[in-house]
Amino acid sequence: MHMQLLKNNKVVMFDRTDFGPSNISLPNGRCRDDPNDKVLTTDCTAHSILYDVHSNSFRALTVQTDTWCSSGAVLANGTLVQTGGFNDGDHAVRTIAACRGESSCDWAEFPHALSERRWYASNQILPDGRIIIVGGRAQYNYEFYPGDSRSIKLDFLRQTKDGYENNLYPFLHLLPDGNLFIFANRQSIVLDYKQDRVVRQFPAITGGDSRNYPSSGSSVLLPVDENITPVAAEVMICGGSSHNAFQLAAKGTFLRAATTVTDDQPVWEMEKMPSARVMSDMLLLPNGDVIIINGARSGTAGWEAGRNPVTTPHIYKPKAPTGKRFASAAASPRPRMYHSTAILLADGRVLVGGSNPHIYYNFTGVDFPTDLSLEAFSPPYLSPELDPLRPRIVRVSGTVGYNASFQVTFRVAEFLEAEAVSVRLIAPPFNTHSFSMSQRMVVLRGAAVWCLGLETYAVAALGPTTPEIAPPGHYVLFVVHARVPSSGMWVQIQ
């Protein structure tokens, strides 16, 4: 249900805690005792794991309170801060550090750290290192972590709730000026969270489809390119479903999902996807493309509410001419419906996991059995035919300062030209419910290239201009040559 890549190339994964035992025992005979759990008050099984990408192995983690439909973000030091959930977890904050070779690293929990119940809320890391937590079911406000344990009213969230909600898990994007773009249902605003005021309201998206949970479209902030002055922000939203799709699905009618893609420039520009899609995940790829993966063609998010899985990923190329921006990739053999996830790995693959559109785990006798598998999707740029063009990073500094010059050494067999090289940072997001929170790509300035020797080159670049462009923290750095990315290296922006 939730995934986050950490700076040690391990992935924290977790589900909810209130469906009964899982198939993984907690180590050393440990058990979780929770008198508030709605199914199993003594539970000796794990509902969270730490997955090691390199070794394809995992170990169990202990989560105490219910993480069902919660949210998260990563602090500047690499610690995952995970917020809210259901029942005894709805006011909780949980943290886990990115430990190296530490078998005892586990969740730390603070059950009453939040001022309000945060179930179906969204998070965004901010330039000052705090996390803003927005909304949740029947929560028309936001708060900060760390903060002063108070919530701040946001009427926009009340105004965007319809008879079927459709404003949960609002889409949040930090803009280059430091303000926060918030999208809920069909409406969007810019919030100056420092002054607690809305500074801009955008027109509603064309058409009647809703885009947020349970209608569950998805959204990304397209790459922020510091070589373009002034630095522009463009928000992309795709998919969703009719505002009443959730109610109709409960009655056995599964409406066709939305087919539209929208760009905010600041008027909404509409495009058509190759197929209708709800509950899909959108991820920024290192070459600037967007992958749209997982989901269904009809219905909506929720228990038993989706039909007609879409197993074919779509690749969206923002810089291609209109009408030629979409390409379809190889289909997966596995449907990935409600409660599936996807994240980008540092090696450029996309890790996909989960799918459970049932109240409990259900492996037989249903249209879409609970799926506990992981699979990796290799985007087209990982084709062996492109290996001669693929840069391989040899050396890069582990820290990059704001506006500071730094150098990356790389090797490539068939170098084309300096203009084909760029240096990019990606902030790995927290993924759940079709939204990747705090996802961000920055295309860095400079990129002067010179040859050091046989097939070896150096590229000079400048660190991000401001924390508003790239909040302090750990990013994956890629060198891209002729639209073919290297494997990523972790760097700290400070």
Structural account:
- There is one protein chain.
- By secondary structure, this protein is mainly β.
- Helices cover 2% and strands 40% of the residues.
- The chain has two helices and 46 strands.
- The strands form twelve sheets. Strands 21, 36, 38, 41, 44, 45 and 46 form a seven-stranded mixed β-sheet that branches. Strands 6-5-2-1-39-40 form a six-stranded antiparallel β-sheet, with no helix packed on it.
- Strand 32 and strand 33 form a beta hairpin.
- The protein is globular.
- The mean pLDDT is 94.
Shape: globular
* Nearest-integer average pLDDT: 94
Taken as a percent bin, the fraction of beta residues is 35-45%
| N-to-C CA distance | 31 Å
What's the short story on this structure?
This protein has 2 helices and 46 strands.
Helix and strand topology:
Elements: E1 2-5, E2 10-14, E3 32-33, E4 42-43, E5 48-52, E6 57-61, E7 71-74, E8 80-83, E9 93-96, E10 108-110, E11 122-125, E12 131-134, E13 141-145, E14 152-153, H1 155-159, E15 171-174, E16 180-184, E17 187-192, E18 197-201, E19 209-210, E20 218-221, E21 224-225, E22 235-238, E23 241-242, H2 245-250, E24 260-264, E25 268-272, E26 281-284, E27 290-293, E28 296-299, E29 306-309, E30 314-316, E31 326-328, E32 340-344, E33 350-354, E34 374-377, E35 392-396, E36 399-400, E37 405-411, E38 421-427, E39 430-432, E40 435-437, E41 440-443, E42 445-453, E43 456-462, E44 473-481, E45 484-485, E46 489-493
Q: How would you describe this structure in keywords?
A:
494 residues; GO-like_E_set; mainly beta; single chain
